[in-house]
């Protein structure tokens, strides 16, 4: 086993070196070909510049979190830090559990299926993969711990220890819950999967729902004794995970890794065109997964477009994650920040995050974009842009609005913000994002003079204007958002 583990470690190191070489091509460096003194000096220079940039950027993030603490107050920010220490591992556990039920945690690329699956035992593969993922989780947890320490205004060593431990515990717990699916007999696999799914959802949702109550006990856990107990428990969880991985059915593991192998082959496409990468993964998943029955009956007239949007949502349930990322996270966060009159730095940070998320085509307009790309069908539809967008996006917009209202009202009640202004503002921002998707109709491009207005540009400009208006108060922000909705609807009226 030691020989195989050493082999896997060397293979992993070669893969990392190959990935690093590919990424360094973007800055004109080749770590294999450029081996001279000047070339190596340039490569070291790049590493130093990258490290210094990361350090400065992270210091700025910590400074922004400190500003948020001053805006919220010491008591609220300290409670929020404890809440996040419970909430983040619970959400991560739920995400890892669902991912492990959809695809086995024993991940194999295409070449790995051909050779490693026949030579190396599954527990050896699992151990090597777990080491890599544990290192990444520990690093992310340590960085998150520094942010929570800055938010709580407390010494950072305790938080930097607690956050990685919490995330690693959630990861090991998720692996223990989902690995029996890979080891189950074919006849019992559905029962095992159903039981694991119920366990993951019940525990994840239960901890998330009780996170406010559990946050009060967090300070009592910041002791060396409690940390030692968690480490010992993680040891037992690790033993169970390795034991289950050793019983894995490799034929099932290889078959279940088909989608992962396809994603792994296209992983660098995500850096160039994330929209194309997600679309390719979605189509690959649709070809492999079970589709909705073809006996789905569409409505007639306007109900046909609504049925199309609803069927698309049913066939691609993973799109709900994209909707919730906006409806339950980014939009409520932005609405609450605007209502709370925070500083410009905090609001600018939210705006930058929103702009980066807008680079990926919004799920709100996916059905509308599909209808517009199909020129043969689009020319026969008796709907204008605004009407077609409203009908196609109705199901997904309903999901987004419900999640925004629920998340905004819940967080506003905790933070003491004005929910009567925050909830309408969140709904107005959701409508703004949905209407901006209508600007991507290739058959009817929108121009202001000689400038082509795209959905991305329209959404960014509108969010920027609403953010500027929020500096004068929540009422001007709501008025600006409603005015932007009306302007976009007017642009799409034909």
Automatic annotation (TrEMBL):
Keywords: Membrane, Transmembrane, Transmembrane helix. The keyword Coiled coil does not apply. The chain crosses the membrane at residues 44-64, 84-104, 125-152, 158-179, 191-218, 224-244, 320-340, 346-368, 389-413, 419-439, 451-469, 475-492. This is ABC transporter permease.
């Amino acid at each position: 086993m030691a020989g195989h583990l050493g082999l896997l470690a060397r293979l992993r190191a070669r893969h990392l070196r190959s990935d690093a070489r590919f990424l360094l091509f973007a800055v004109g460096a080749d770590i294999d070909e450029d081996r001279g003194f000047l070339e190596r000096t340039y490569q070291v220079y790049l590493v130093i510049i990258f490290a210094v940039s990361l350090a400065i950027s992270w210091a700025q993030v910590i400074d922004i979190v400190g500003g948020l603490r001053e805006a919220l107050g010491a008591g609220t920010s300290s409670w929020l830090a404890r809440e996040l220490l419970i909430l983040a591992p619970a959400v991560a556990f739920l995400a890892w559990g669902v991912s492990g039920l959809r695809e086995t945690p024993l991940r194999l690329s295409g070449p790995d299926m051909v050779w490693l699956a026949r030579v190396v035992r599954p527990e050896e593969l699992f151990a090597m993969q777990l080491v890599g993922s544990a290192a990444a989780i520990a690093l992310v947890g340590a960085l998150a711990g520094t942010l929570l320490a800055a938010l709580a205004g407390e010494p950072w060593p305790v938080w930097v220890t607690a956050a990685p431990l919490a995330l690693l515990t959630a990861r090991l717990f998720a692996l223990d819950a989902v690995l029996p699916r890979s080891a189950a007999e074919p006849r019992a696999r559905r029962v095992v999967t159903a039981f694991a799914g119920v366990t993951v959802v019940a525990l994840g949702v239960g901890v998330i729902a009780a996170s406010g109550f559990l946050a009060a006990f967090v300070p009592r856990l910041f002791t060396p004794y409690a940390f030692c107990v968690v480490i010992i428990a993680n040891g037992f969880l690790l033993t169970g995970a390795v034991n289950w991985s050793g019983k894995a059915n490799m034929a099932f593991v290889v078959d279940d890794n088909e989608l992962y192998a396809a994603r792994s082959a296209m992983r660098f496409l995500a850096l160039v065109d994330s929209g194309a990468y997600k679309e390719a993964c979605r189509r690959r998943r649709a070809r492999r997964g079970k589709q909705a029955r073809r006996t789905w009956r569409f409505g007639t007239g306007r109900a046909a477009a609504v049925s199309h949007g609803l069927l698309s949502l049913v066939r691609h349930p993973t799109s709900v994650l994209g909707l919730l990322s906006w409806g339950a996270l980014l939009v409520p966060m932005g609405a609450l920040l605007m209502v709370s009159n925070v500083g410009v730095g905090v609001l600018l940070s939210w705006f930058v995050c929103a702009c980066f998320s807008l680079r990926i085509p919004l799920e709100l307009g996916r059905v509308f974009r599909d209808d517009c790309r199909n020129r043969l069908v689009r020319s026969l539809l008796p709907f204008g842009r605004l009407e077609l967008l409203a009908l196609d996006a109705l199901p997904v917009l309903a999901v987004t609005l419900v999640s925004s209202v629920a998340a905004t009202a819940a967080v506003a009640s905790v933070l003491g913000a004005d929910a009567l202004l925050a909830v309408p503002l969140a709904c107005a921002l959701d409508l703004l994002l949905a209407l901006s998707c209508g600007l991507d109709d290739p058959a009817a491009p929108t121009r202001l003079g000689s400038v082509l207005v795209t959905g991305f540009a329209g959404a960014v400009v509108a969010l920027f204007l609403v953010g500027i208006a929020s500096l004068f108060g929540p009422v001007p922000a709501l008025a600006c958002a409603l005015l932007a909705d009306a302007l976009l609807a007017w642009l799409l009226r034909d």
